[in-house]
């Protein structure tokens, strides 16, 4: 994964802050040329950092992905990490594991609440 700094991170920041958007708007927000943003969006899409979304195939509407949000959080480590892509993957796995644990904990609480409600209704 070869990111261009600061352009790629500026695009990710803009999508994170403003939500789904198109290249002309992203160019204005980031202060980069429309051509530059148009060239970088497909690359960021290939890296899985952004996703091209509809409604039409040629709409040019993009949104940041979970992977892109993790890349933003890790941006200070981009220059020093020997493998930034692996770093992102590790953080995603950690994040996914934490969310699974939280969901399981909530599921246990929800089940206990349901049992208590059943007992009270009898």
How does this structure look, described?
- The chain has 122 residues and is mainly alpha-helical.
- The chain has a three-stranded antiparallel beta sheet with strand order 1-3-2.
- The radius of gyration is 20 Å and the shape is globular.
- InterPro entries: WH-like_DNA-bd_sf, WH_DNA-bd_sf.
- It comes from Natronoarchaeum mannanilyticum.
- This is ArsR family transcriptional regulator.
What is the gist of this entry?
This protein has 122 residues and is mainly alpha-helical.
Which short descriptors sum up this protein?
122 residues, WH-like_DNA-bd_sf, Arc Repressor Mutant, subunit A, mainly alpha, 5 helices, globular, WH_DNA-bd_sf, ArsR family transcriptional regulator
Strand fraction equals: 5-15%
- Class from secondary-structure proportions: mainly alpha
Q: With helices defined by DSSP (H or I, 4 residues minimum), what is the helix count? A: 5
Average pLDDT number: 86
Tell me the CATH architecture: Orthogonal Bundle
- CATH class assignment: Mainly Alpha
Query: Gap between N and C termini, in Å?
Result: 60 Å
In what order do the strands lie side by side in the largest sheet?
A: 1-3-2
| Number of beta-strand segments | 3
Sheet having the most strands? 3 strands, antiparallel
Give the overall shape: globular
CATH H-level superfamily title: Winged helix-like DNA-binding domain superfamily/Winged helix DNA-binding domain
Radius of gyration: 20 Å
What's the CATH topology label? Arc Repressor Mutant, subunit A
* Unreliable residue stretches: none
Helix proportion range: 55-70%
| Count of domain modules | 1
Order of helices and strands: HEHHEEHH
């Amino acid at each position: 994964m070869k990111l261009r700094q600061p352009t790629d991170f500026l695009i990710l920041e803009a999508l994170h802050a403003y939500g789904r958007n198109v290249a002309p708007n992203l160019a204005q927000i980031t202060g980069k040329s429309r051509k530059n943003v148009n060239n970088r969006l497909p690359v960021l899409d290939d890296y899985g950092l952004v996703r091209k979304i509809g409604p039409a195939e040629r709409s040019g509407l993009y949104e940041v992905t979970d992977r892109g949000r993790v890349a933003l959080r890790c941006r200070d480590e981009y220059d020093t990490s020997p493998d930034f892509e692996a770093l992102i993957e590790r953080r995603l796995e950690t994040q996914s594991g934490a969310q699974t644990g939280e969901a399981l904990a909530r599921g246990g609480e929800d089940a206990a609440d349901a049992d208590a409600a059943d007992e009270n209704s009898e």
